[in-house]
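Colleagues,

Please find the record for the two-part complex below.
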Amino acid sequence: MSDAPPIEVRGLVKRYGALTAVAGVDLTVHRGDVYGYLGPNGAGKTTSLRMMLGLIRPDEGSVRLFGSDPQLSVEALDGVAGFVEAPAFYPYMSGRRNLELLAAYDGADATSRIDSALRAVELEGRDADRVGGYSHGMRQRLGIAAALLRNPRLLLLDEPATGLDPAGMRDMRMLIRRLAGEGITVLLSSHLLGEVEEVCNRVAIVRGGRLVYEGEIDAISRGAGRIVYRLATTDDERARRVLEAQPGIGSPTVEHGKLVFTADEASAAELSRSLVEAGALIRELAPQTVTLEDLFFELTEGEQRAGGQDPPGTVEPPPPAPAQVAG
Amino acid sequence: MSATAASVAAPRDVRRPGVATVYRWELTKLRYQRRTYLGLGAAALVPILFTLAIHFHHGRRRGDFAFSNYLSRSGLAEPLVILLFGAIWMFPLIVALVAGDIFASEDQNGTLKTIFTRSLERHQIFAGKTLVALTYAVVAILLDGTVAVVAGSLQSGFNSLQSLSGTIVSAPKGLELVYVSLLIYLIPIAAIVCIGLLLSTVTRNSAAAVVGTLMISLLIQLIGILPGLSGLTPYLLSTQFNAWQGLLRTPIDWIPIVRAAWVCALYGVPALFAALVVFLRRDVAGG
């Protein structure tokens, strides 16, 4: 078995005429990752996934799945499964017949996994029905079943929970966690930040076809060791001077009438004493938790982060002007 | 969703699917589609309606019509007369129902991305689908011919057949000539299938590909009757639809048959090659 990472993307570019859908994406998904691939509509997520699956050709750059190029041979997709946008099936055939066809197209012993795949997505009672009569959620689940036929080591799922009801979304999260627990690497494109935060260990955020963040989910909430604080005192001007003089404190700014700054926990504790000694009594000193949502909106809407703190992880500056993008 | 049986294992397996797998499953898919039966139904129904029309015409003693003597002498004449009348429009339309749809419907269903991410190379999928489109053409023509032979024989008897040179051939020999004629007729039909496949890959729209294929067939026929272009006639695809008539001459006239083989190849092979290139190179960006 190759030691190459499940997904290694370098300098990926895709243009449609004047439209740049993907503008130089680099990312690496390691074994065992549940990797969230986030971005607003039109950020280039689906186009990237299509290139990863060999459905479209990159104009520049490369994709390697376990070290193999999916553009060169379909053998690069051995052990790889997934779907982009909504999974599509032949509407005039039953769910089981569709899976039989896909299992035949997979070869090997995929046919022997049809029953277990149908059980895994709880479609065994509806497998004889025509797919044309399936709800969107059932098609999503059939898409997962079709992926499981390939006994994958790597799953690429594009918005797998889209269109599912809350119970279906919960079940989908559980299934993804279970698959990850079995050692399957998962790349999950999603709009649902809560879903990504709950199931993923690493995340990438794309904007305008560019990767603007890549890092671990935990690092976001840890704030890379630095925390954003909000401070209100009896004398904010005096407090501001204390903050500027205090070592280990980032430059304070004023937001909504309160001082906002970054500090590590030790510096923040020391600050309390300095403020009291300076005669600026603390009315409020509250740490702000950085969520994935904060980071997402900051990076995708171009907002300035409170306190001017760099987000943790690998960050590239957003492009000077939003590129024309397609999804 | 409950526990899955999926486990992480080495995925490499020597048993990979091939063209035969695609061929088998494309045939299965045809069984589920209405258009399949529409085409085959037409191929079977036309000879029956034709026979009924002859039967009622004779019953009312309305006199002769084109080929009426020929048809009343032997039921074996019926498939040949139908071939003569249906050559330009009916059979091209029937085969275009599948050839024009076979790639375009995958686009319209969004299923290209589904099958392209399995373990088959694109050229294998293309070959399997092409073979199925050709198979459908063979089945449709042979079905039409067989129904015509049976219906014609019930109407006029399984008698000896008069060749186009006026000689009489025995019924068994006539039956053999009918089927070989049908096979020769399949040569230009194969070219039509290739054109249908090209339109299917290029337009990505079933209706446009089916209608487009028929239109091309009719357009070529139209070119053949334009004044001043008679020099082109031997090289038009529409002319090759009559090549089978060489078989019914005594001695057999091989010239139109041989010409049909290479002229049809000139139409069909480039179309098929272009379809393959489009299919191999295309980005599956939608659906």
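DSSP finds ten helices and 14 strands in chain A.

Comments are welcome before we finalize the supplementary table.
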